[in-house]
Design goal:
Elements (H helix, E strand, L loop, with lengths): L1 H10 L4 H20 L6 H26 L6 H8 L5 H20 L1 H6 L8 H29 L12
Amino acid sequence: MLATFAVALVRGVHRIVDVAWGLAFTAVALVTWTLSAGYGDDTRRLAVTLATCLWGLRLAVHIARRGRGHGEDPRYARMLARAPGRPALYALRKVYLLQGALVWLVSLPVQAAAYLPEGVDVLLVAGLVLWAVGLTFEAVGDHQLARFKADPAHRGRVMDQG
């Protein structure tokens, strides 16, 4: 997240932190894969790493495409306009460091799973099925929302179906 903050300062736009969110989970999964070598079950380690990387990369690509060609995200523009003192340091504290801490916290199950000694079991299979269902719902929902927003007749409306 610190590297993302540096890039955001150079580019003058903080919306890239949203792309970095998915990439950060991918990075945690890959680092965990590397550090857990020789400890956990290799099949479980691979499954958890691949599932996390696929989810993180899909999310990052989706958000990058959605934001391409746009300026600053209005949420960040409003937040920084009200920031006390130096807006860049405020963004570092309130956005980047907070999201970095949340990535670490949310990814704790991924990190722990890499060290489990058990091989393929019911929980791993159930987790992968749940992951696949969730990823499918997320991708379909993102696609439906993009189509909805692309229709000029929906300008200013909220998508409440699908």
